[in-house]
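Field reference: "sequence" (input) and "structure" (output). Example, Response regulator transcription factor:
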Amino acid sequence: MSEQKKPIRVMLADDHPIVMTGFAMSLEAAGMQVVGQAKTPSEAVALYAAQQPDVVILDMRFGTELTGLDAAQGILKDDPRAKIIFLSQFDQDSLIKETYRMGAHAFVTKDCDPSDLVTAVRHAHDGKLYFLPQIASRLASMAVRGDVTPQSQLDERGLEIFKLMAEGLTNAEIAEKLDLSTKTISNVSQSIKEKLGVHRQANITLLAVKHGLIEP
C-alpha cells in the first residue's frame, strides 16, 4: 500500500463510551483507522505516546479534575506537531478561543453531523484548520469585540486569585492558601475587579463560569 493510500490513524479520548463508539463507527465507515480510545486525560497522553496517531480527538470535559486542555498540553509537550481536534457539548467563547490558541486544528460540538467530524479529521491530517460555521462566526464576533476575557486581562497569578475569588474565598482565605499577605491579596483583588469591571461577588462568580474557569 502506498504512503498516500494509508488510512488516517485516529485516537479518541472521551469518558462516555457510547459517544466514542458512535464516532469510531463514523470514522471507520469513512475509511479511517481508530487506533485507540482513552477514557481519562492522563490515559490519553500515555496512549498518544504509545500509538502516535495522525490525529487525536479530545473531549473537552472529563469527569475528573483534569480536562481535555490538560491532555492537549501533555501531548503537545511531547509532540509539538500533534494534530488535535477538540470535541465538546460546551461552547463557551473562551474555551473555543483557547483551543485554537493552543494550536488545535478544530473545535467540533458533540451534536455535529458525523460528516463534519470526518471533514475535520481530514483537514487536521493535512495540517489545515477546520471551522464549523457556528464556531467560525463566534470567533469572528470575538475578534470584532476584542478579547476581554479574564484569561486575556490577567497574568497567571492574577487568574489564580480570580478563580479563588469566584469560588467565594475571602481575601484572608486566599492569602493563607497562596502563602501571601492579606494586604497583598487585597491589593491584587481590587486591581482584578477594576480590570474586569466587576465588583459584586455574584458577578465575579458568573464571569468565571461564563469563561469556563470554574464549574457552575
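The radius of gyration is 20 Å.
The mean pLDDT is 87.
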